[in-house]
Amino acid sequence: MEGIRGNGTAKVALALGAGSARGLAHIGVIQVLQEAGVPIHMVTGSSIGAVAGAFLAVGLDMRFLGKIVVEIDFRSLLDPQVPRLGFIKGNKIYQFLHLLTQGKSFSDLSLPLAVVATDLEAGERVIINQGEVAEALRASISIPGVFCPVQRDGRWMVDGAVTERLPVNTARELGADFVIGVDVNFGGREVEINHTLGVIMQSIELLEKQLQDSYISNADVIIQPKVGHFGITRFDLAQDLINLGREAAEEALPQIRTALGVMGFPNFIVP
User: Counting beta carbons within 10 angstroms of the beta carbon of residue 212, is it exposed (0 to 12), middle (13 to 18) or buried (19 or more)?
Assistant: First the structure.
């Protein structure tokens, strides 16, 4: 904070974390930030956080998007197959993402976007900010063993949560001065180990947990919707998740407003 006091020229980034169904809370967070006039100059996202960030960067009306996701039967977006590289082909969800991102490339977006995925063979984080947005999103949400990985630039890409669940560090590396991180794995945790997806997701969360504190500490403001008690497949509870995202963002607004006032952004006054 001390190094970015000034005339409101700092770059503000929104970093949206992974969390499967819990990530629907991102919609509520974004709605509140937009209503409050919080400037966002770039977005980074991992897994479902990348999806929410892309919808923002495309310019979708987030209120309208909230109404859409409440009505969607997310099971209709799955195309099961006999497992080879994954239980779900991912073609249907790619078509859905292609539709809502309007087939745009990163260069067409109104807001800079960086999508985090993972190189399955190298075990390395991959930052995608070129090419078709829907393809990048399809890579970022590819839970290993559940979705077929995406082959891109000679690499097999899987879920960004494997290497960076909350892409705060990615935002810093891309030049952000001030980062608002949204962690959608906060609160009492419901562990689902009664199906394959639950086993895989719990394994990923355990492997990643030791790194999460460093991601959170590197954010200037962290918003944590209390959604940890929601199962990772509870897309049917979309409205509840969106509402909890709104509540968490509203609680964080005084801290955000104060910080923006310190940085000299118009319409934000230091108390």
Answer: middle
